[in-house]
Amino acid sequence: MITVTNVSLRYGDRKLFEEVNIKFTPGNCYGLIGANGAGKSTFLKILSGEVEAQTGEVTITPGERLAMLKQDHFEYEAFTVLQTVVMGHTRLYEVMQAKDAIYMKADFTDADGMRAAELEGEFAELSGWEAESDAAILLNGLGIGEDLHQKLMADLTGSDKVKVLLAQALFGKPDILLLDEPTNHLDLQAVKWLEDFLMNFANTVIVVSHDRHFLNKVCTHMADLDFGRMRLYVGNYDFWYESSQLAQRLAGEANKKKEEKIKDLQAFVARFSANASKSKQATSRKKLLEKITLDDIRPSTRRYPFVNFPIEREIGNELLRVDGVTKTIDGVKVLDNVTFTMNKDDKIAFVGKNEFAITTLFRILMGEVAADSGTFKWGVTTSQAYFPNDNSRFFESDELNLIEWLRQFSPTDQTESFLRGWLGRMLFSGDEVLKKCTVLSGGEKVRCMLSKMMLSSSNVLLLDEPTNHLDLESITALNNGMISFKGSMLFTSHDHQFVQTIANRIIEITPNGLIDKQMAYDEYLENEAVKKQREAVYQ
Questions:
Q1: pTM for this one?
Q2: In Å, what is the CA distance from 466 to each residue of 196, 390, 463, 470, 474?
Q3: Average confidence (pLDDT) over 488-515
């Protein structure tokens, strides 16, 4: 167990935490949530001892081991992959090194023999004889094959290094596991493996992630870091979000009898409890949910942007025809004979291991890049709004504040009050709208780009990784806005829940052609015929 008592931290005049008191207990997985900049990663560093709080203390049950996912991908360049994983259990690795050093001595003494025997005993107690095989199991599960286990970390790609560091954190079944954005740079198979691992992990897990699907799968509790305070809620992210919305509705219904409110709560809890699977985490979560009372749910003070894409013109039946589009860049064929027809009401998610291919296709469709061969044609009733993967070119002028920046894209009303209203929807209020566009954070730039798209009233949207840089609140708002959009769209995203809840058609760009299926994302991943087709095209 890890206990936080009266922990506070300030940076200058900025308060990150104020007298945080919380206990993290074994058998539970805690999702640490909060707006960008709230201090989630810093809080994990306080728990690990990497950062010292100004007041209060963090205590760990004596004898328990804590492991944290390392963020420095170049820290272990001189070590082999297997060594790096085993180093996750510091004491075991120290024993291994000390034992090997004694056996390497030329003048082996009786004292050395006694010390070696002591180390061998501790080595066995720490499951040292199974260390390499346990490390190999973790690596294989995450997609790092045995051919890489003896290679140096310096020889691995960036994404493979991330997987090795994740295996390092998981190694040896730590009593307390701290994970900061563990799904970043992981492929679908690795994320699924990690979900299964954590759902059956018996010890304490505290995780920071922007992946709502991941939080929903693995978490029994949400620890909400909001305005310097931390509150603990039973349930996964969706339960936290919807219960906070329910609490706001119930709080606003002053004339509604308490008995009726309790019935609403019971129906709400029953709906979520029924979705629990048989995993340890989900079963634990279900038991906790069933004990929820009316006083346990509270409205969130979190602010959500308002995302809504109106359409000015009804879309016709002919939207987009792509025929044989091919593109080679720097000698590499990125797109090869891409052919498909977009239909009315299609919300197409483009997936695939080559993300650059999807970005290139979107840029071709928007006229930014010319195809080497092939054609595409938009229907005469369509109008397109585009969210590019790289939006930096839109924010290069240091002369424009946010009102002036947005005025460039307002087709009708260019008054300050009108533009302030649009920026206010995206959480820019007061003097914030006078900030220069060159000083915006990544998340603020995304919210500006969404304002630009909404003002266009286009009936076809193209979005290339729109959730990058956004906090969970903005992702949720954008997700809801895209679900309710009345037009058609092409998009790509790493956010599993985003794709699952929006797309009704999946197109995967593979090295050997397209896989095009009219189905939801989860069905696409689980469908046996599609699995065989995917295996064939990636061979």
A1: 0.82
A2: 27, 10, 6, 8, 10
A3: 94
